[in-house]
Write a structure and sequence with these properties.
Elements (H helix, E strand, L loop, with lengths): L1 H16 L7 H21 L16 H9 L3 H4 L1 H4 L8 H17 L5 H19 L4 H10 L9
């Protein structure tokens, strides 16, 4: 699956470099078919398990849990291939939330819901400014001098 996703990412990057706004219908059909084939092979290699006496649920293996997660969410997993505005990974989202978790770890908690909401609002504005290549200091200075910066719409 990793090799498939990385190869798909390369195809998307090549299409973006050519100036395309999407992959062709045939290419998307092929990708979905390959994705299904990989999941089918995974089902054979790591079948779902049931309790031998009761037939009830028991803990599944790690590969099986991954298959259970990837199976029903095929459209979401391949969204980067159907919508070129969606990033291949979620690293930026993880970076955005990391500072909140770090603050909780250092101080032990966010003291109040209101304080947490203010902190998250400020971080959100600063992250958006950074993503839009706007000077973060200017955004903060504007907030204190009465100029509220409004991000541009995509």
């Amino acid at each position: 699956m990793t090799e498939f996703l990385v190869a798909t990412h390369r195809k998307v990057n090549a299409a973006k470099a050519r100036g395309d706004t999407s992959l062709g219908k045939e290419a998307l059909y092929t990708l979905r078919h390959e994705y299904g084939d990989i999941l089918s092979a995974g089902d054979i290699q790591s079948p779902a398990r049931a309790h031998p006496k009761t037939g009830g649920r028991i803990a599944q293996t790690e590969p099986r849990r991954l298959l259970n997660r990837l199976g029903p969410y095929q459209d979401d997993v391949l969204r980067f291939a159907t919508d070129f505005t969606v990033p291949f990974d979620n690293n930026q989202a993880e970076r955005d939330i990391r500072i909140i978790k770090l603050r909780q770890k250092i101080s032990g908690c966010l003291r109040s819901t209101t304080g947490a909401e203010h902190f998250v609002s400020i971080r959100s504005v600063m992250s958006t400014a950074k993503k839009q290549a706007v000077n973060e200091f200017d955004v903060l200075l504007g907030a204190f001098t009465g100029y509220n910066w409004i991000p541009t719409q995509p």
